[in-house]
């Protein structure tokens, strides 16, 4: 053994990269894209419909070529999740659903944020490992939903 | 040639645990620095016994006695 390091992820990426992570998280959690990219529309909140917003603290969506208000809208049953970029450039996840409590929606939004972060990190790491010439030995999803990647390479 | 192995575990929250194997000495730090630039910032780091082992360096000394016979 040589060294063990624990890293806290920071999401800094342009919009297409964020959308790729959103698509991965949506697929894993059974959400369907309602509209892939949408201009923000001020919608009147329906009666009994709660809304909760979660901001990804260590995130920055690079604003190149990104029109204000662009977001991805996902649905699963009565739940709607919107992922976009807030005024400060951070990634924002908003969950809403009729008849759901704020606590439930917060849990849904946080679960989605975590899955999205995991997908983002996986995409990034897998790409860089390949570029560095590593060969995949094994890859598996563990019981606790973590992803284990084992790679190797030969060096002179 | 040496075999370098890296085991990466991405938790459900996105936190990443990297275990570099087979790299002796400070060479392993190059991998962890590279991965920290890709992922984010270092939360915790532990050096294991292999880190303190000397890096393998090969040197061959050739010595030849020439006798002319004259």
Helix content of chain B: 10-25%
Beta-strand percent range of chain A: 35-45%
**Rg for CA atoms of chain B:** 21 Å
Give helix and strand order of chain B, one letter per element, not per position.
EEHE
Anisotropy-based shape of chain B? rod-shaped
Give the count of structural domains of chain A.
1
- How many distinct folded domains of chain B? 1
The separation of the N and C termini of chain B measures 45 Å
Major β-sheet of chain B, in short?
Answer: 2 strands, antiparallel
Q: Strand order across the biggest sheet of chain A?
A: 3-6-7-8-4
Structural class of the secondary elements of chain B?
alpha+beta
What would the principal axes of the Cα set say about the shape of chain A? elongated
Average of the residue pLDDT scores of chain B = 79
Walk me through the structure.
The complex is a heterodimer of chains A (156) and B (70). With 156 residues, chain A is of the alpha+beta class. In chain A, helix 1 (15-29) crosses helix 2. In chain A, a hairpin with a 2-residue loop joins strand 6 (71-76) and strand 7. Chain A starts with a strand and ends with a strand. In chain A, the strands form three sheets. Chain A has a five-stranded antiparallel sheet, covered by helices on one side. In chain A, strands 2-5 form a two-stranded parallel ribbon. Chain A has one domain. Chain A has two helices and ten strands, in the order E-E-H-E-E-E-E-E-E-H-E-E. The model of chain A is unreliable at 36-42 (pLDDT under 50). Helices cover 29% and strands 42% of the residues of chain A. Chain B is of the alpha+beta class. Chain B has one domain (1-70). Helices cover 19% and strands 33% of the residues of chain B. Chain B has one helix at 27-39; strands at residues 2-10, 16-21, 40-47. In chain B, strand 1 (2-10) and strand 2 form a beta hairpin. The N and C termini of chain B lie far apart (45 Å). The mean pLDDT of chain B is 79. At the A-B interface, strand 1, helix 2 and strand 10 of A face strand 1, strand 2, helix 1 and strand 3 of B.
């Amino acid at each position: 053994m040589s060294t063990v390091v624990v890293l806290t992820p920071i999401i800094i990426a342009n919009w297409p990269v964020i959308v790729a992570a959103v698509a991965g998280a949506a697929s894993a959690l059974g959400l369907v894209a309602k509209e892939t990219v949408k201009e923000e529309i001020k919608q009147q909140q329906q009666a009994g419909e709660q809304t909760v917003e979660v901001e990804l603290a260590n995130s920055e969506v690079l604003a190149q070529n990104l029109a204000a208000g662009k977001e991805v809208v996902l649905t699963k049953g009565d739940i709607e999740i919107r992922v976009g970029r807030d005024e400060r450039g951070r990634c924002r996840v908003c969950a809403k659903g009729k008849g759901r409590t704020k606590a439930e929606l917060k849990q849904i939004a946080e679960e989605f944020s975590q899955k999205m972060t995991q997908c983002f990190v996986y995409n990034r790491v897998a790409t860089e490992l390949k570029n560095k010439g590593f060969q995949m030995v094994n890859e598996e999803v563990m019981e606790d939903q973590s992803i284990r990647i084992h790679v190797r390479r030969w060096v002179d | 040639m040496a075999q370098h192995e890296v085991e990466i575990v991405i938790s459900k929250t996105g936190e990443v645990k990297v275990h570099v194997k087979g790299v002796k000495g400070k060479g392993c730090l190059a991998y962890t620095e590279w991965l920290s630039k890709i992922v984010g910032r270092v939360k915790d780091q532990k050096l294991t016994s292999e880190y303190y082992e000397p890096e393998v360096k090969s040197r061959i000394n050739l010595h030849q006695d020439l006798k002319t016979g004259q």
